[in-house]
């Protein structure tokens, strides 16, 4: 039995890193053909993704490492898991089955029956889920989304709309879809939608980064739902759609920062491993990189710990996400230069890392949106003015 949370986290990190190393050899192949991502269930981090991030009451098969049990539901444990998985390969990490964003929403808004069904299905067999919020013209402004829930001819609920950039939309078995029941932000609701229902259609969008995640464009045409699909039915309108969305972002933002740190580390370590006898100047540059990665990881873990203390503490995570996204872009851009002008061509993994890093600008809110969140927190006095704002 380990005594401190540091020892537990170190054990988790060590084991996930060992598992994640097994993913690396598949990174370029799946980048070329994202449809291969569903055939990687023999890899431990992909297979186990369905058994983590499920709250204890609904998970009787959590991870067990040397006798220690991990549900990976706290922000710190999620950050450690996601940093190491992204170090193995960010794209394959995002393309893995499991509760992911949808799971956090179900935890916040789901009824007891919805939670039992959702988490039970994930534990029964590896299942891909999705979280469909973004629309073609309302990415950073979800309060303006245009998809609708309306009364259907049969007395049920009819869902119509279009979504964009939805991770795993093509391979998901079910997931959360946001739409409005009327005008204004408080009429936004979310429903659990089975992707086999008539009227659901998803197509992959060609991307240059995190290609494995196969971001999808979703069309919803008269998808027939019932009240039992709606999330948050027993809650007040202030605590349903948009509140649920911001809860998901608050809980998961440290994990996005952690993924960016994991990607930066992968690029840095690749250079250290493959650049034989670096010049004194290069060695000094690598030392600065290592120092910066450590500093941003420390900031990210502090932000995760703050969220574990209080889920409303999402602003420090916005700072961490800003810093980590910038770190991932700068390290992955600088890494190929250690190998000369042809670095990106001769080292395809480094080329992929530089493309993947671009995703962090948009994942879980763009840089400017994070800055607005941080500025809002400063104005309200809920963020320490000494915090290292990006
Ligand atoms: C890898 C990846 C995975 C994703 N997964 C999902 C998913 O699973 N589900 C989902 O629903 N979405 C997902 N998204 C979409 C993501 O949430 C959106 O890309 C993001 O919200 C930004 O929206 P947008 O792309 O429409 O950009 P826009 O909102 O059009 O923003 C474009 C630019 O304008 C700036 N901008 C926008 N508003 C303001 C403002 N008020 N002030 C100043 N600047 C502003 C932004 O900072 C940005 O630089 C994913 C995106 C990526 C890259």
From TrEMBL:
<dbReference type="Pfam" id="PF00441">
    <property type="entry name" value="Acyl-CoA_dh_1"/>
</dbReference>
<dbReference type="InterPro" id="IPR006091">
    <property type="entry name" value="Acyl-CoA_Oxase/DH_mid-dom"/>
</dbReference>
<keyword id="KW-0285">Flavoprotein</keyword>
<protein>
    <submittedName>
        <fullName>Acyl-CoA dehydrogenase</fullName>
    </submittedName>
</protein>
<keyword id="KW-0560">Oxidoreductase</keyword>
<dbReference type="InterPro" id="IPR009075">
    <property type="entry name" value="AcylCo_DH/oxidase_C"/>
</dbReference>
<feature type="domain" description="Acyl-CoA dehydrogenase/oxidase C-terminal">
    <location>
        <begin position="248"/>
        <end position="377"/>
    </location>
</feature>
<feature type="domain" description="Acyl-CoA oxidase/dehydrogenase middle">
    <location>
        <begin position="131"/>
        <end position="223"/>
    </location>
</feature>
<dbReference type="Pfam" id="PF02770">
    <property type="entry name" value="Acyl-CoA_dh_M"/>
</dbReference>
<dbReference type="InterPro" id="IPR046373">
    <property type="entry name" value="Acyl-CoA_Oxase/DH_mid-dom_sf"/>
</dbReference>
<comment type="similarity">
    <text>Belongs to the acyl-CoA dehydrogenase family.</text>
</comment>
<dbReference type="InterPro" id="IPR037069">
    <property type="entry name" value="AcylCoA_DH/ox_N_sf"/>
</dbReference>
<dbReference type="InterPro" id="IPR009100">
    <property type="entry name" value="AcylCoA_DH/oxidase_NM_dom_sf"/>
</dbReference>
<dbReference type="InterPro" id="IPR036250">
    <property type="entry name" value="AcylCo_DH-like_C"/>
</dbReference>
<keyword id="KW-0274">FAD</keyword>
């Amino acid at each position: 039995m380990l005594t401190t949370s540091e020892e537990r986290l170190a054990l988790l990190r060590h084991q996930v890193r060992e598992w994640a190393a097994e993913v690396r050899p598949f990174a370029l192949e799946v980048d070329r053909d994202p449809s291969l991502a569903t055939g990687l269930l023999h890899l431990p981090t992909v297979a186990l993704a369905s058994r983590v991030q499920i709250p204890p009451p609904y998970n009787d098969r959590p991870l067990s490492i040397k006798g220690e049990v991990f549900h990976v539901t706290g922000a710190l444990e999620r950050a450690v898991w996601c940093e190491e998985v992204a170090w193995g390969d960010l794209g394959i990490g995002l393309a893995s089955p499991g509760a992911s964003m949808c799971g956090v929403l179900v935890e916040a808004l789901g009824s007891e029956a919805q939670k039992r069904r959702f988490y039970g299905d994930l534990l029964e067999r590896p299942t891909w889920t999705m979280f469909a919020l973004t629309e073609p013209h309302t990415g950073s402004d979800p309060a303006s989304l245009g998809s609708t829930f309306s009364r259907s001819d049969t007395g049920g609920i009819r869902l119509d709309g279009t979504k964009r950039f939805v991770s795993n939309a093509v391979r998901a078995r079910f997931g959360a879809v946001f739409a409005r029941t009327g005008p204004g932000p408080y009429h936004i609701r979310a429903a659990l939608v089975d992707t086999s229902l008539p009227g659901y259609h998803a197509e992959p969008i060609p991307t240059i980064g995190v290609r494995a995640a196969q971001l999808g464009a979703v069309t919803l045409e008269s998808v027939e739902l019932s009240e039992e699909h709606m999330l948050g039915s027993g809650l007040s309108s202030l605590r349903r759609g948009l509140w649920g969305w911001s809860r998901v972002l608050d809980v998961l933002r440290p994990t996005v920062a952690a993924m960016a740190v994991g990607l930066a580390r992968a690029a840095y370590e690749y250079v250290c491993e493959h650049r034989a006898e670096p010049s004194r100047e290069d060695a000094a540059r690598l030392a600065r990189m290592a120092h910066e990665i450590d500093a941003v990881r420390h900031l990210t873990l502090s932000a995760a710990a703050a969220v574990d203390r209080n889920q409303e503490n999402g602003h420090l995570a916005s700072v961490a996400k800003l810093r980590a996204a910038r770190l991932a872009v700068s390290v992955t851009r600088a890494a190929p230069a250690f190998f000369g002008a042809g670095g990106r061509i001769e080292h395809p993994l480094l080329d992929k890392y530089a493309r993947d890093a671009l995703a962090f600008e948009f994942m879980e809110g763009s840089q400017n949106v994070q800055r607005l969140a941080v500025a809002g927190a400063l104005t309200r006095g809920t963020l320490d003015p000494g915090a290292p704002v990006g």
